[in-house]
Amino acid sequence: MSQPRILVVGVGDGGAATLPEALVRRIMAANVLAGGARQLAFFPAFQGEKVAIAASVEPALARLRQAWERGERAAVVASGDPLWYGVGASLRRAFPPEALEVLPGPASFQLAFAALAEPWQGAALLSAHARPLADVVAGARGVAKAAILTDGQHTPQAVAAALVAGGVSPASPCAVCENLGGPDQRVVRATLGQLAGVEFAALNVLVVWPQGLPQPAPPGLPDAAFATEAGLITKREVRLLSLAELALGPGQVLWDIGAGSGSVGIEAARSQPAAQVFAIERREQLVEHARENLRRFPAPNLRLSHGAAPEGCAGWPDPDAVFIGGSGGRLAALVEVAQRRLRAGGRLVLNLATLEHLHEARAMLPEAQVYQVQISRGQPIQGHMRLAALNPIFIIAWRKAPAEMAE
C-alpha cells in the first residue's frame, strides 16, 4: 500500500470558509494537522492531533515525517502560497516532491496588487522577513515597482527608512496593504517619507514605486577630479580595467577594501546606482579625502567606513565582487575572507604594486589571471610630446566557481 501524500494547503485570512468544502473535509479527516497558530485556529473542530509550527520548524517536520512513514494522513495549513517564502521550502527540504500534495492559496503579493488594482508583471518581489534590509534595498533600487513582505522588526516604517537612506526619494509613492483577504483588510496609500511614525497591522505588504534614483554615470573620471594626497589614487586607466574585471551588476554587492581616496568605489557605485558598495579605509586622512570625493560625486549607494579589514567587513552582506586596493600588510587574511564570503560566481580583483605582493597573491590564487599594466601618458615638451610612464601595476583577477560547479 502506497503512503498517502502530505496535504499542504494555503489558507487566506478568511480561514476555512474560503476553501472548497471537499478540501475542508480532507483536512478534517487527517490524523495530524500542522500549521501556524493562526492557521490551526481556523479549524477548531479538528479531532486529530494538532502540531504547531513555531520559531523552529524542526519538531513539526519530525512529527510529519513520522506520520508519513507510518502511513497516517497528515495535512499542513499555511498562509497564502506555502512555496513562496513559506513553510513549503522546509517541507521540500525534508520530503521528496512525490510525498507532498501542494494546493496553494493566493499569495500575499497577489492579494496586495489585487487590492491596488495594479498589474504586477515585472514587479520585484522581496521579503524583509528575518532578512537583512540591505538585500531588500538592493532589490528595490532601480525597479519600476516592488512588493516587500515585512515583519515585526522590519516594519513598513523601517523598510521605508532604509530605502530612503539607500537613495530612493522619500516622495516615492507607496502603499501598505494590511490583513489581506480578511474582513479588516485596509490599504494605506502614502509616500515613503510619510510612513515614519505610523503604525500598521502586523500582517502587511509594502508596495513601492521607487523614484529619485540617480542615473548611471559612465566611469572614467580624470585623476585630477579626485581629492587625494601623495598621488594615492588608483589611476584612471587601471581603475577602468579593474572595474571591468569586477563586472558589478544591478542589485549586486561590491566590497572596496583599502579604499584610499575612494575612486574605485565611487566610480563603481555611480556606474551601477542599483548596486551596493561597501568601502573601508584605515587611514583617517584618506577617509577624509574619500568623504570629500563623495561630496563632489554623490553616490548614495556607497557606505564608507573608517576601520581595518577584514574585521570591519564582518557585518557586510556577502559580496558579488571584492576589490582589494590596499592590504595594510594583511593580504593573506583579506584574500581568505574574500574567497569565503564571495557568492558563487563572484569576482575578486587585486591591485598590487610590488613583486613581493604578487608572489604572495600567486601562492594563494594560483589559478587567477595576472596582468601587468604599464601606462604611459603623453606630455608636452618644448612644442613636442613625450611619454611619461606611470608606475606599473599588477592586476590579479580571480573568479569563484558558479553554484552548479561548486556543488
What does this structure look like?
The longest helix is centred in the N-terminal third of the chain and has 13 residues, at 58-70. This protein has 13 helices and 19 strands. The strands form four sheets. The chain has a seven-stranded mixed sheet, with helices on both faces. A five-stranded parallel sheet has the order 3-2-4-1-5. A five-stranded mixed sheet has the order 6-7-10-8-9, with helices on both faces. It has 407 residues and is α/β, with parallel strands linked by helices.
Q: What's the gist of this structure?
A:
By secondary structure, the protein is α/β, with parallel strands linked by helices. It contains 13 helices and 19 strands. The strands form four sheets. The chain has a seven-stranded mixed beta sheet, with helices on both faces. A five-stranded parallel beta sheet has the order 3-2-4-1-5.
